[in-house]
Amino acid sequence: MLGDNRRVPLAPDPADLRAVFGGAVSSYEIEPIDPHLRIHSVTGGVYRVRADGQSCIIKVVQHGVDETPDGLWQSGATEAHRNYWKREWLAFDSGLLNALPGKLRAPRALLTTEYDDSCCWIWMEDVLGRTGSALSLNDLDAIAFALGTTHGAYASGVVEVPADPWLSRNWLRGWVDACSSFIEPLSADDRWTDPRLEPLRPLRERIASLWAQRESLLEIADEPPLAIAHWDLWPANLYVTNDGEAVAIDWSQVGVSGITHDLDQITLDTVWMQVRPDESLEELEERILRSYVAGLRDGGYAARPQDIRRWYAAAAALRYAWLGGGQPDVLADENAVHFQQQRWGRDIGAIVATKARVVERAVHLGESALGR
């Protein structure tokens, strides 16, 4: 639904503008934010609205019906769907995200509006601060610590884990199921002749072997105590404000899952998504897990580092190990290659080599979680 996502019209109701900005608005400007990146089928657009020296963000949430390019982000109509279209709107509308415990927070919800059975808007704070590639390693440490305090409050029982039916559950299992299409290409030698796939070729058998043991990995991932999980905490969705607060945006996947299940997006996804393509994954993991454990303890949960590492390893493997099998299709699609090169400003060969490092690390983590 990428084409439709770029064309969602925005005509705010004057009464809504008054409610958000605290009075009558003499004039306003609307700026679409990165419309070319709106590949998620539940996102109808993200806009910055400026009015009388103030600003806010409007996120249009929609029930998209078309498949997304990789098949992983198509929206669902039911609350049980991994990608239920209305989930983020409900998380803001219910007040859940305005009342997160600990030091991680979401943008402040200013207004939630609903227009029909397939479209609604979230009006939220315009978060200012460092994000994406501007985040330093110290910033990532601070975010991991803040996440730990929030997860620790739930894991310790200080704050009850919410039971709202629209929260995602079994998200990781749904992701693994959606990745099943990446497994068959692993054994098709004719799919791996492109020389740019060379860094991934030696991993094919190990990925397939790990896939055969995915149920064991899922059992490990089910062990930790539960908390609210964001499920997409990569650097583009993370901010450190000028006041030092850790803020996460884009809560479209929010749900209930085990602690540690958000960590791999701060570690592996930071490299996979080319934010820090040359970063040592081992060193990044070491500092992020250390900060997270400290945050858990600050939040009231006395975690054993070895348990945290094992739970993290299982979840990270389940999230990233299979993605290597999808790379032949990416390289065979000229549009996909062009999109990635334009997005990251790197040659596709370098991008694939970076992703191969992540896949190799994910496979290693899965093998270590299984005691291999």
Structural write-up:
By secondary structure, this protein is an alpha+beta fold. It has 2 domains: 2-125, Phosphorylase Kinase, domain 1; 129-369, Aminoglycoside phosphotransferase (APH), C-terminal lobe (Aminoglycoside 3'-phosphotransferase, Chain: A, domain 2, Alpha-Beta Complex). Helices cover 39% and strands 16% of the residues. The chain has helices at 2-5, 14-21, 87-93, 137-155, 171-178, 204-212, 214-221, 263-272, 281-298, 305-320, 327-331, 334-344, 348-369, and strands at 28-32, 43-51, 54-62, 104-105, 109-116, 119-125, 129-131, 226-229, 238-241, 246-248, 255-258. The strands form 3 sheets. It has a 5-stranded antiparallel beta sheet, sandwiched between helices. The protein has a 4-stranded mixed beta sheet with strand order 4-10-9-7. Strands 8-11 form a two-stranded antiparallel ribbon. The radius of gyration is 20 Å and the shape is globular. Mean pLDDT is 93; it is low at 1-8.
SSE map:
Blueprint: H1 2-5, H2 14-21, E1 28-32, E2 43-51, E3 54-62, H3 87-93, E4 104-105, E5 109-116, E6 119-125, E7 129-131, H4 137-155, H5 171-178, H6 204-212, H7 214-221, E8 226-229, E9 238-241, E10 246-248, E11 255-258, H8 263-272, H9 281-298, H10 305-320, H11 327-331, H12 334-344, H13 348-369
Parallel strand pairs: 4-10
Antiparallel strand pairs: 1-2, 2-3, 3-6, 5-6, 7-9, 8-11, 9-10
